[in-house]
TrEMBL record:
This is DUF4760 domain-containing protein. The chain crosses the membrane at residues 20-41. InterPro entries: DUF4760. Keywords: Membrane, Transmembrane, Transmembrane helix. It comes from Alteromonas macleodii.
Amino acid sequence: MEYVLNLSDREFDMLRLVFQFASAVLVFIGLLIAAWNLAIASKRFKKDKTKESSDYARELRSEFRSLQINLRDIDPKELLHIDNEKLPDVMFYLNSYERLAIDLKNGYLIEDYMRASMGFSVIYTWKKTEHLIYELRSKGGNARYFEHFEKLYQRWETQP
């Protein structure tokens, strides 16, 4: 059985307009769904990044607690003449802050969260070890030692 529509030009134009309108409505609905999914994914990404920042700060603090050295017990001038036993622990501190600064620079962590969580520690550690870092730079012949840590300190020191 064969069906044939006998439509006038006007009826055909009306039918075409109805289908075009329906097509436009479906495209609009598809765009709304895509925007909704994008918003949900963005929120989920930010939540994951916040959790990652929190875990990172917690891990860093526990690593520092496990060290045999406490920077509060050392006079900054002693750091320039620190014995070989303590130097690896101090370097671990400095490398950890350099890694933190690089991860923040690359956007792997949320800077506002990390500043609220570790801001005092970053500023305190830089001030305590600044002379040692400059000494390491001059003796090692590399002016870029801990440059990201220094830039992080400068940024956080000037921002409230």
